[in-house]
Write a structure and sequence with these properties.
The complex is a heterotetramer of chains A (281), B (789), C (161) and D (151). Chain C is an alpha+beta fold and 161 residues long. Helix content of chain C is 32%, strand content 16%. The longest helix of chain C is centred in the C-terminal third of the chain and has 15 residues. Chain D has 3 helices and 7 strands. The chains are: A alpha+beta (281), B alpha+beta (789), C alpha+beta (161), D alpha+beta (151). Chains in contact: A-B, A-C, A-D, B-C, B-D.
Chain lengths: 281, 789, 161, 151
């Protein structure tokens, strides 16, 4: 319950934060909302020498429309996303997923950027970020970088973010209402056993499917997407496609769900999410 | 809601007097105590399920600034003595339970060293500096494997993992099984559970060197038993020991124990000359506070084709964990005592084997042995009804004793003092709209849904208990004092920790004395004021503690009548008493109240001859029998075919706990108890892997009910007073837990019955149900390939 | 290396030098002496430490005191005003929404936040709002009753919102 | 817990087998290994700094080999302990020729204890696979690189 001692730095600007990160290297951890880091600190699973708190940096918490896309600041809380009228109108998948993250108290403090960078394989956001084909904007000593969601999640707790980079913004496209997130919750922790986020583009006759909780990292269910491309979203087509939701995936097994059950839930929740999203088209 | 101003308190849903302080953050839990010069302890625990300690280096920890000292088993075990266990089976093999491990650890969480430091954070930092060289040994976590010949031994010097055997046998079991038309067999598993009170344990010990007296504040259900037992460990005389339980944040049996940390902090407070505080973390709580249940039984029920049950047999293994806490071996014997339930069985044979494994000790957890009995029996009743093609309700009714048959002597040797099982069952059916519920099930099944109805008819053994059946006294004590001002102080030997007896006891006392509740204070949980007590567990506090207070009130009233008579010029026999006033029969206008009598009693100028000053009385209540609350729970549940998720559609509970002192509190106890069973049936379980590692060591992995899991309840009651105490009350703390378990499980199994699924072991996790459904659906598909649409 | 932290707690400015590792819950309990905020777990799951930070319900065990520097905190001790219980406290009392009382401060503050933005919550909405708070005594049913009762009280004219 | 995996390494089994016996190569390939010292025939002590995300810890432990049947198989034993807990495992490693490459199959019985078992059970399997994957990936690269240089 008591973290090991650490030094605390509170930069005022992103530039300053990047410099501190370069200076302290691997011995430092960035603190955003703290809802992934602080639990690890309390258990002493994480014992960084230095904690760099980016919570006071101006203008990292926002949701705004820019050039036909929605930009969400990395420090935007889950709660702000849940409550955003702009997102409800222009990218309703984000508020829908936000409602599944943790609990009210966690949503009030935890941030989108913090969650993505932590890359917990059972967190909710990666499913949505993948399904939306979002872009992740980082800043580092060499300046900004834009990373596509599909290459952002590398492995268990591992992202494409370099050690000296800070995630600054998440950009998502404007979508129709035909989106959905269906999650089977690990009831003790609130994380996903299988969470499936779906975006249906009715006009283009394509779907995109992001799945979290099932494997060591969140993934795009490309086999599902390919099968449905150009097809009408009939119940039969959806069922046939959803059956591929765990293809070529190595599902995790633990005391809460075996690998087999996880794969089943991936397929089932994919079918259900597609059905819900299609009904919203 | 009635106002607390009027008299006639018993039976009223009065809001609790405890609440204002608890709701405003003004209550004092152990962790809220701050004593001058207080030091903070932290305990280093084994990460191994079984290992030899080859070396222990504490120098670096001792050198950390702010660390007072670090102690290992070699430095403290001699001074602290062994942790007591109350059980006394003749063949019981008990390991020496020292406060810290010696040269061997035998469960994950086994305390290895204790640090004392100036602050909690320094104490925590110091733990990381202690080096322990463990040589891992083979461990056994499965009690059935522990009985196999080649199993690793939890205690090698015992030469076996068997801790004890126990047999309850009565009647011609073999003869009745031979006469049976059918024998219903089922293996019944009660998974291990972790009580998880939201407040972990904790204690503060302070030694007064001048007086040689020690005060221990501890989050316990049993300060009086701690005061009885602790002297044997730390060498402070009982009369130099004061145990205080401030607010206790939930117990459920897990705080019905004397734990090593209480002894160590007490010892160290003396040794170091400063108060020592220890507060348990959640992970420590999960691994080193007792667990509950963990029984596996092979059950057999002998029945006739008409539904008459004849006899029951069980061969049961109880996983005790690696050592014995206070009641560890006793708990599973309660399963045996209650295994005949509400039914007129003619014979029983309950064979119990207690087994050691490399896990935390089990002990009393809400219901403590009785939910195990009720669940096993009520599952068997449903299985029997299904096999015989009988209505489960009629089958139960057929085997109940009739209301006129009480006291009913069970085949297990108990005498149920009162009961009317038929009435509770009928009432529950009425509240559940039984016929409509059956129609709802038919309609759901026709639509292809998995919808089931389950019931349990249960009886508990509560109000524990007569001293003859208890290890250290089953009486209870209470004291009532009319103060000089006329205010009333009631002191109970029970130790409420959420049950609300500051309120219900004030109701009992206020009612009888005719004094407003606002003028009554109920003291509890401090051995300096509550001189005697046997504390709170086994749904006993209101039954026994309430009666002890009532007896004291009656003594005071009798005494006050003498005084009133003297003051009014009449004999005590001529004095009437009602509503807090005393008057000579026929002259109510000239009445004396408590205030006046108290002044006279203590100022003591006008006392009659041979009349002792004061208005105080204390009483020990020794019950002649336990109480036997009973009831019926009816549950409707639906299982989602594709996921195995269970939804509780309807929940009806009818409990007969006798007359209710405060129906609001009764309802709270029932709802809370049901939630524990809902957890056990649907998802709670303590998981150790095959090597004895605890995998449910935090709330991240131990699933407990949250608000979203709770159905809306329909709660009713019947009132069959117990003849065993003057109030007729029976206790309600465990009723929900005992009644709910089989009702929920039976409902889920009924939902799956059309698929041919007979039984699934608890907890009924979605994955298990999904697998069972998939398997049976595949079989059905094979049998009639065309019927599937 | 200690850092000076200023937090307005229940209307009073509290300034203490703390190690950066000190959690808000320990700042409140150990330095401010406000022990109504409880610690029930170490994994941000029980909610017993719930307080309002700048008006929002948060878990004080998962916030460093330095993060709350400059903020305003309401703890359970600050909820009643002028000796008058908050309507949520009143309702918990009337509906028997607490037994041991350990989870209660967090449960009440989570409910207060819910009612700030949803004055008439359904039972499902209440359950959702207290999903981050564990209670092992009550079985939640009376807590949900209490929040609905509080909503009614707060809808009456003249009640504190 | 049993963890299994198969990796392809671009070198012949005999070469792969030999390189797996070299402490310097092992140290390079083992994730986070900053020390690997030979203490006896087929016995080593190791020190590792392992990090998966923010969950980092230092481990010290022993590694030993047995059942050596070059170039087909051997058994690897390891045990390590550190702040977050301890790890103990035995892995059977089999090498088979696959054209000009080697197919390496491992099947490990891993026991994890302490804090990581208590709070990280959902991650352990994935983490172990990830670390094994990293090891064989790196090892494969080293072996292949050396092969290129030799040519």
């Amino acid at each position: 319950m008591i973290p090991a001692a650490f030094d605390y730095l509170r930069p005022q600007t992103l530039e300053e934060a990047v410099n501190l990160l370069v200076q302290h290297g691997e011995t430092a951890k960035l603190l955003a909302g703290g809802h992934s880091l602080i639990p690890a600190l309390k258990l002493r699973l994480a014992q960084p020498k230095t904690v760099i708190d980016i919570g006071r940096i101006a203008d990292l918490s926002y949701i705004r429309e820019e050039d036909g896309r929605i930009a969400v600041g990395a420090m935007t809380t889950h709660r702000a996303i849940e409550a955003s009228a702009l997102l409800e109108e222009k990218c309703p998948l984000l508020p829908e997923v936000a409602r599944h993250v943790g609990d009210v108290q966690v949503r009030n403090r935890g941030t989108l950027g913090g969650s993505l960078v932590h890359a917990d394989p059972a967190a909710d956001w990666p499913a949505a970020i993948l399904a939306l084909n979002a872009e992740v904007v980082t800043v580092g000593p060499k300046g900004p970088r834009v990373i596509a969601a599909k290459i952002f999640f590398i492995d268990l707790f591992q992202t494409a973010l370099r050690p000296d980079e800070i995630l600054r913004e998440i950009r998502v496209p404007v979508t129709a209402k035909s989106v959905a997130y269906v999650k089977t919750v690990q009831r003790a922790s609130g994380f996903a056993i299988a969470g499936v986020a779906v975006v249906v583009k009715a006009a283009a006759k394509t779907v995109s499917v992001g799945i979290t909780g099932v494997a060591a990292k969140a993934y795009r269910a490309t086999a599902v997407e390919t099968k449905l491309a150009g097809q009408p979203l009939s119940a039969e087509n959806i069922a046939a496609a959803a059956a591929r939701a765990a293809n070529r995936i190595e599902p995790l097994g633990d005391i809460h769900a075996s690998a087999e059950y996880r794969a089943h839930l991936a397929r089932l929740n994919t079918r259900r999410a597609l059905g819900v999203a299609a009904s919203r088209a | 809601m009635k106002s607390a101003k009027s008299n006639g308190y018993i039976g009223q849903a009065i809001k609790r007097v405890e609440d204002p302080r608890l709701m405003q953050g003004r209550a004092t839990f152990v962790d809220d105590l701050r004593l001058p010069g207080m030091l903070h302890a932290a305990v280093l625990r084994s990460p191994h399920a079984h290992a030899t300690i080859l070396g222990l280096k504490t120098e670096a920890a001792k050198a950390l600034p702010g660390v007072t000292d670090v102690f290992t088993g070699a430095e403290i075990n001699q001074a602290c003595g062994l942790v007591p266990c109350s059980a006394s089976m003749p063949d019981l093999k008990a390991p020496k339970h020292t406060v810290l491990a010696g040269d061997r650890v035998y469960f994950v969480g086994h305390p290895v060293a204790i640090v004392v430091a100036a602050s909690p954070s320094i104490a925590r930092d110091a733990l990381d500096l202690i080096e322990v060289d463990y040589d891992p040994l083979p461990a056994v976590a499965n009690p059935e494997k522990a009985l196999e010949k080649e199993s690793p031994l939890t205690h090698p010097d015992h030469g076996t993992n068997v801790a004890f055997t126990w047999l309850l046998a009565n009647g011609d079991v073999d003869g009745l099984f031979a006469q049976a038309d059918r024998v219903i067999k089922q293996r019944i598993v009660h998974q291990r559970l972790t009580p998880m009170a939201i407040e972990p344990r904790g204690c503060v010990a302070s030694f007064h060197a001048g007086e040689g007296s020690l005060t221990l504040w501890t989050s316990t259900q049993i300060p009086h038993l701690v005061r009885t037992l602790l002297p044997g460990m730390i060498g402070v005389a009982e009369n130099k020991l004061r145990i205080v339980t401030p607010e206790v944040g939930g117990g459920f049996g897990s705080k019905l124990n004397l734990y090593v940390e209480e002894a160590m902090c007490s010892h160290l407070a003396m040794r170091l000359g400063a108060p020592v505080k220890w507060i348990e973390g959640r992970r420590e709580n999960a691994m080193a506070t007792i667990h509950g249940r963990d029984q596996i039984g092979e059950y057999e029920l002998a029945v006739k084709n008409d539904g008459t049950v004849l006899a029951i047999k069980a061969r049961t293994i109880a996983d005790l964990g690696s050592y014995l806490q206070l009641l560890t071996p006793t708990i599973p014997t309660l399963t045996g005592l209650m295994i005949s339930g509400c039914y007129k069985l003619k014979a029983v044979r309950f064979e119990l084997t207690g087994v050691y494994t490399n896990k935390m000790a089990t002990d009393a957890y809400r219901g403590a042995g009785r939910p195990e009995a009720t669940y096993a029996l009520e599952r068997l009743m449903d299985l029997a009804a299904a096999e015989l093609g009988l209505d489960p309700v009629k089958m139960r009714l057929k085997n109940f004793p009739k209301p006129g048959e009480f006291p009913f002597h069970t085949v297990t040797g108990l005498a149920y003092d009162s009961g009317n099982y038929q009435r509770a069952l009928k009432k529950a059916q009425d509240l559940a709209s039984w016929d409509a519920l059956l129609e709802q099930r038919d309609a759901a099944r026709q639509a292809g849904r998995l919808f089931g109805i389950g019931l349990s008819t249960y009886v508990e053994i509560c109000g524990l208990g007569p001293s003859k059946i208890m290890a250290a006294g089953g009486w209870e004590w209470g004291c009532v004092r009319i103060e000089i001002s006329g205010k009333v102080t009631a002191i109970t030997g029970t130790t409420p920790h959420g049950q609300g007896q500051e309120t219900s006891f004030a109701q009992i006392v206020g009612d009888r004395l005719g004094v407003p509740m606002d003028d009554i204070v109920v003291l509890r949980g401090d051995t300096a004021s509550a001189h005697f007590g046997r504390d709170t567990y086994g749904s006993r506090a209101t039954v026994l503690g309430g009666t002890a207070l009532l007896m004291s009130v009656d003594k005071i009233i009798a005494k006050a009548k003498i005084l009133a008579g003297a003051l009014l010029g009449a004999s005590a026999k001529k004095i009437d008493f009602r509503g807090g006033k005393f008057w000579v029969k026929g002259k109510p206008k000239n009445a004396l109240d408590w205030k006046r009598l108290a002044q006279e009693a203590y100022v003591a100028k006008n006392l009659p001859a041979n009349f002792e000053p004061g208005l105080e009385a204390s009483s020990f209540f020794e019950p002649k029998n336990c109480t036997y609350p009973f009831g019926t729970h009816i549950v409707a549940a639906e299982v989602e075919r594709e996921t195995g998720d269970v939804t509780i559609v309807k929940y009806v509970a009818v409990d007969d706990c006798g007359p209710q002192v405060n129906p609001l509190l009764v309802e709270g106890q029932l709802q809370g108890g049901i939630a524990h069973s809902l957890g056990q049936v649907l998802f709670e379980r303590t998981v150790y892997d095959g090597d004895g590692q605890l995998l449910t060591g935090e709330f991240t992995d131990y699933s407990m009910p949250r608000a979203r899991d709770i159905p809306e309840y329909v709660i009713g009651s019947t009132v069959t007073p117990s003849p065993s105490n003057p109030l007729g009350i029976k206790g309600v703390g465990e009723a929900g837990t005992i009644g709910a378990n089989p009702a929920i499980a039976n409902a889920v199994m009924d939902a799956l019955a059309p698929l041919g699924i007979r039984h699934v072991d608890l907890p009924l996790l979605p994955e298990k149900l999904w697998r069972a459904i998939e398997e049976k659906t595949a079989e059905l598909r094979k049998k009639k390939p065309r019927s599937q649409s | 290396m200690k850092t000076s932290v200023n937090i307005r707690v229940n209307g009073t400015l509290r300034t203490h030098d703390v190690e950066p590792r000190v959690l808000l819950v320990h700042f409140l309990r150990d330095l401010c002496g406000l022990t109504g905020t409880h610690v029930g777990c170490e994994t941000t799951l029980c909610g017993a430490c719930t307080v309002l930070l700048n008006g929002q319900a948060v878990k004080a065990c998962t916030i460093l005191a330095v993060q709350a520097d400059g903020g305003e905190v309401t703890t359970i001790e600050g909820l009643a005003s002028n000796g008058r219980l908050h309507p949520v406290q009143e309702a918990f009392w009337e509906c028997h929404g607490l037994q041991c009382g350990f989870c209660t401060p967090g449960m009440i503050l989570a409910s207060v936040e819910l009612l700030q933005h949803n004055p008439q919550p359904s039972r499902e909405e209440i359950a959702h709002a207290i999903d981050g708070n564990l209670c092992r005594c009550t079985g939640y049913s009376h807590i949900i009753d209490a929040v609905q009762c509080a909503a009614k009280k707060m809808a009456q004219p003249g009640e504190a919102k | 817990m049993i963890i299994e995996g198969t990796h392809s390494i671009a070198a012949a089994p005999a070469h792969v087998f030999d390189r797996l016996m070299e402490p310097a190569v092992l140290q390079q390939a083992i994730p986070g290994c900053d020390k690997l010292e030979k203490t006896g025939e087929d016995e080593y002590v190791a020190h590792l700094k392992l990090g998966i995300g923010s969950i980092k810890g230092s481990y010290s432990g022993k590694v030993s080999l047995s059942d050596r049947q070059p170039p087909h198989k051997f058994t690897l034993h390891m045990e390590g302990k550190g702040g977050p807990g301890f790890v103990k495992g035995t892995s059977a490693i089999e090498l088979t020729a696959d054209g000009r490459a080697t197919k390496l199959h491992y099947s490990a019985n891993v026991q994890v204890g302490g804090l990581i078992a208590a709070v990280g059970s959902r991650m352990i399997e994935a983490a172990a696979k990830k670390l094994a994957g990293e090891f064989f990936h790196k090892f494969g690269a080293i072996v292949a690189d050396a092969g290129k240089q030799a040519r």
